[in-house]
From TrEMBL:
This is H repeat-associated protein N-terminal domain-containing protein. It comes from Paenibacillus donghaensis. It comes from the Bacteria. Residues 1-44 form the H repeat-associated protein N-terminal domain.
Length: 49
């Protein structure tokens, strides 16, 4: 995800404020660790779980 954000930073800036630049892999990990796996599976049942 970090690489995706860095490669597409200019495009992402068209709708996101990235004052500190693209988030690092640590930031993505911190955010993803807060998500509830059961809720994600319910929202996206087609994804492997």
């Amino acid at each position: 995800m970090e690489i995706f954000a860095k490669v597409r930073e200019e495009w992402l800036r068209t709708f996101l404020e990235l004052a500190g630049g693209c988030p690092s892999h640590d930031t993505f990990g911190d955010i993803l660790s807060l998500l509830n796996p059961a809720a994600l599976h319910q929202a996206f049942p087609f994804a492997p779980g």
